[in-house]
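Hi support team,

I've been running sequence recovery on a batch of backbones for a student project. Most finish fine, but this one hangs at about 90% for roughly twenty minutes before it completes. I'm not sure whether the input is malformed or the queue is just slow. I've pasted the structure tokens below so you can try to reproduce it. Let me know if you need the job ID as well.

Thanks,
M.K.
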């Protein structure tokens, strides 16, 4: 069988040479490209081997075809090495994975790392570097890593965007932190991701900015209006802002005075809901209350004397 294959190889080469095709070292098929040819050769299928050889020769015109096709089987595919590299990436052994990738490229000259492998390893390396920078509180380094590898800020890694925003806020960069939160809300389509981001953004957003973030969230998730409204009501209540439903009983108790939706009585009176000014307004009201009570008692007494 070996002699038949050698004669087949010699015949094929003769045909190529007769056609005036120059054989020279150059682009060569990879071990994966040679799998079919190796199979036909190992099974003695001369006709199929000849057809596959013609196809490869047309695809790789500079390929120097060996005189003995059985030697092609010795150019095995680095399947085991590839599996090991993927396992190392999954286990977080990134230094070892990078070394194994380089060694495999050297040991198998026709093999290059597939784009997916390169992407997975580069993303894992960036994630590890980002985690180290975030743990050290180094906002500048974390931002630079995210800039070089945007894949770590995708919605399936939303924790990275949150950590980045927290680092920015801790560094006094509240506008940048708010922009990071805004980017998540504008990009992610999961309700849990968006609502968690809104809760975190509340710590750095002004009242107007919070309203704008909820407007953006409603545009991004048009079918989640009730859930977003409930969250907005809760967050505004935490700031001392009363929703219209909560302020209605208070209005009835004070003679049915109308109030602007979403504003407290203190806000209507011109006092701030939060901060020193709001505290001063409350203290002034407490000081004035005893005078109001005395005035009411005098009024009641006078009313009684008239009735008598």
């Amino acid at each position: 069988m070996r002699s038949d294959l050698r004669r087949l190889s010699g015949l094929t080469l003769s045909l190529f040479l007769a056609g005036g095709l120059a054989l020279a070292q150059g682009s060569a098929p990879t071990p994966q490209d040679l799998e079919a040819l190796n199979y036909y050769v190992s099974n003695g299928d001369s006709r199929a081997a000849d057809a596959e050889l013609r196809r490869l020769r047309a695809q790789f015109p500079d390929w120097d075809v060996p005189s003995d096709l059985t030697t092609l089987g010795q150019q095995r595919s680095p399947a085991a090495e590839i599996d090991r590299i993927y396992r190392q990436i999954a286990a977080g052994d990134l230094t070892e994975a990078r070394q194994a990738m380089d060694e495999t490229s050297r040991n198998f000259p026709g093999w290059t790392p597939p784009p997916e492998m390169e992407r997975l390893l580069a993303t894992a390396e960036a994630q590890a570097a980002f985690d180290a920078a975030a743990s050290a509180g180094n906002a500048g380094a974390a931002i630079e890593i995210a800039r070089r590898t945007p894949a770590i800020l995708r919605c399936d890694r939303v924790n990275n965007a949150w950590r980045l925003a927290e680092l920015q806020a801790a560094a006094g960069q509240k506008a940048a932190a708010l922009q990071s939160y805004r980017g998540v809300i504008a990009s992610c389509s999961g309700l849990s991701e968006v609502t968690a981001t809104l809760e975190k953004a509340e710590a750095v957003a002004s009242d107007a900015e919070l309203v704008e973030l909820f407007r953006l969230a409603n545009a991004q998730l048009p079918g989640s209006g009730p859930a977003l409204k409930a969250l907005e009501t809760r967050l505004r209540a935490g700031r001392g802002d009363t929703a219209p439903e909560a302020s209605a009983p208070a209005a009835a108790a004070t003679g049915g005075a109308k109030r602007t939706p979403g504003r407290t009585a203190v806000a209507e009176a011109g006092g701030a809901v939060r901060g020193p000014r709001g505290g001063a307004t409350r203290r002034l009201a407490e000081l004035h209350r005893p005078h109001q009570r005395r005035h009411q008692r005098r009024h009641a007494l006078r009313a009684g004397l008239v009735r008598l």
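--
Follow-up from support: It reproduced on our side and the slowdown came from queue contention, not your input. The chain is about 70% helix and 0% strand. No action needed from you.
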